[in-house]
Amino acid sequence: MMKKSVPSMVKDPQLVKKRREQMVKGAVRLFIEKGFHRTTTREIAKESGFSIGTLYEYIGSKEDVLYLVCDAIYEEVSRKLTKQLDSSLTGIERLQKAIASFFQVVDEMQDEVLVMYQEAKSLPKEALPYVLQKEHEMTAMIEAIIRDCVTEGVLSLSDDQIKLRAHNILVQGHMWTFRRWSIQKLFTLEQYTALQMEQLLASSR
Amino acid sequence: MMKKSVPSMVKDPQLVKKRREQMVKGAVRLFIEKGFHRTTTREIAKESGFSIGTLYEYIGSKEDVLYLVCDAIYEEVSRKLTKQLDSSLTGIERLQKAIASFFQVVDEMQDEVLVMYQEAKSLPKEALPYVLQKEHEMTAMIEAIIRDCVTEGVLSLSDDQIKLRAHNILVQGHMWTFRRWSIQKLFTLEQYTALQMEQLLASSR
Amino acid sequence: MMKKSVPSMVKDPQLVKKRREQMVKGAVRLFIEKGFHRTTTREIAKESGFSIGTLYEYIGSKEDVLYLVCDAIYEEVSRKLTKQLDSSLTGIERLQKAIASFFQVVDEMQDEVLVMYQEAKSLPKEALPYVLQKEHEMTAMIEAIIRDCVTEGVLSLSDDQIKLRAHNILVQGHMWTFRRWSIQKLFTLEQYTALQMEQLLASSR
Amino acid sequence: MMKKSVPSMVKDPQLVKKRREQMVKGAVRLFIEKGFHRTTTREIAKESGFSIGTLYEYIGSKEDVLYLVCDAIYEEVSRKLTKQLDSSLTGIERLQKAIASFFQVVDEMQDEVLVMYQEAKSLPKEALPYVLQKEHEMTAMIEAIIRDCVTEGVLSLSDDQIKLRAHNILVQGHMWTFRRWSIQKLFTLEQYTALQMEQLLASSR
DNA sequence: CATGAATGAGCATTCATTCAT
DNA sequence: AATGAATGAATGCTCATTCAT
């Protein structure tokens, strides 16, 4: 699955990368504050530190900014998660570590994750497959870890159960942000993690 | 918690009710199709069967339409759910029935629930407390049913666990819609319900 | 050949007609002064006596204004010409009258004719067939009058010659405007008409 | 009458000449395709084979490109025509040759001539006198040939008639391009030339 | 000389809202 | 109460031109 390519008038890839990073940084702040639709391209340009003309040297449309933002957030979540996971744990401990790490990453990037959740529907049509793919990869990653536990015999779950739990883990990570008005009043992240883990690791069959 | 009052120039409450029902019906269809921001007030008026001038006789701003829509959706979910729950079941069975009913209602109102999820952030500021309150009521309702199980001794959960499971039930209902691109490909509603129930009803302490 | 239909948000045809007349009047003045491309929609709105929003209640795009302008000019040229031609002359005299009338109409509407000549290429794609049709009708009208002369035996021309002379008459009318910087310095309209007529009526075969 | 001078930052006249030739070649193609206003300076630079920065080393404004283009077209028409005319014909034959040659040159350079016709109005103010001068020279050239015929006694025309016929010849050449949608469907260039010549050479007084 | 990134004034168009009828 | 024409601020985007490298 190819990344959607965002058109740029500027040739130098280094510069494109740098400017887009500025842009994403500025845009995330604005999208968090007021949402994609209420943010104007001029505001994005200003917040990014350049003019409206320059903004359009690096994107083709406002929607492209949203795509860049979502892509960057995915990338960072992946990066952070991967960093946490390179430990050489096995079995249940590895899964526990994965869940805790994921929840922690979501906690660290609350606003960003929330933006992605709320604005993904405004992504340009061509970007949708790519984003779904990213979600799928994430789910598959968790799924694999769970499956290892089953293979190792430390967890007893059917294939369907494995798949669904992977989804549940993802969503329970996300809900830490999108229900924060309630959940974060009830629990600390540690409490939340412990309580959810308890259920997620319950075996069956 | 008072409902946010939506201003109307029209005095006759019967008429206001009728017109707003037309409006909500039209708006829901449009919001499902293209989202709140991409829907114009003119389109809402047309779809509702009256003129743009008339639309503004019954609301104060476009956001009010969104509020009315969200409110109506909550109302219908509540209504449908209440209808399903008036059985005289007790204990685990009552909870099972509640979960299954909730999932089923969400399934019946997929598009509507999705709209609420995706557009709630655009609600007028004053409406937020009311909406959160609604969510809270819903959670509290589920919570009460779980608590009954615990009281009856058929489930062994701490207070924190009760609260979190109520949230999980809600979110697992919602995710049937917002992750449908994946989950509904893997499971039928019945399968999904059975699999989730299994975990949700697992006891502990 | 159907007229291109220009979309309007306003229902009342009377009003549409009235507003579009205002619009055409304002736009012609501006197009004469600065050309189509250098005229902004805001200027058109202002010159027409209403707001930019109102302008767009009566057209779909800036190009539509140009189409409306060209159409109105054709219409007026036709109207004026028809009015002049309803005399019951025959043979050469009728042709003479037609040529003189046409030149006179072009003279009266110099600026308008020039605008049409210079901006027609910017017309919306769908309007082109209609405009060519109009030109063709005009040519056919002249052609018919020449043909009558031939039929009556007062002029001796082949079919090709008839067709070409019709074109020549049209173009010689138009060139009174688009070469005015030179021709109108050399001749009065009467002189010009007399001199051109002389050649145009020369018989042959 | 001086040529309008187009400012250049570059000193070497050879280079200026070369670059401007590239520029004109590229621009003509673009102007033919989409007109002056719809062509961007970036496109002109690209089509010319150099950067936008370089483009502005050789011109002062976009309008200058149009002027250069028009000038080049005049130049080439003149050149081609002169080449055809250096025969040592006399009298009617010389005029016939001139007309046929002119029509042929116009036919060979249809697109270019059309561009000049349609975009001349967008020329920078200061360029207008020069362009009119060019037109005048052309007319004068034809005029001289006709006058020779009169002097030689092979044609009998008043001074006014001579002047007007010169204009007619020019315009009838041009109309081969700007009415091509109709005329070129009716006639081949040879037919067209023969038919027009017939009238243009008719004597009188 | 050549380059191309940066600029920002300018433009067409949209749309929530008002108000006279 | 209902209508729909009018409004104009706001917005996404373009493009001629400049200037540092």
UniProtKB/TrEMBL annotation, chains A, B, C, D:
Annotated DNA-binding ranges come to: 40-59
Instruction: Give the superkingdom in one word.
Output: Bacteria
Q: What GO MF annotations does this protein's record show?
A: DNA binding
- Record's signal peptide: none
Tell whether Repressor is among the UniProt keywords.
yes
**Keyword annotations:** DNA-binding, Repressor
Q: Tell me which PROSITE patterns the record gives.
A: HTH_TETR_2
A Pfam family assignment: TetR_N
* Gene3D superfamilies on file: Homeodomain-like (1.10.10.60), Tetracycline Repressor, domain 2 (1.10.357.10)
Among its keywords, does the record have Repressor?
A: yes
Q: Where is the HTH tetR-type domain?
A: 17-77
Note the PANTHER family from the entry. ACREF/ENVCD OPERON REPRESSOR-RELATED (PTHR43479), ACREF_ENVCD OPERON REPRESSOR-RELATED (PTHR43479:SF11)
Record-given protein name:
TetR/AcrR family transcriptional regulator
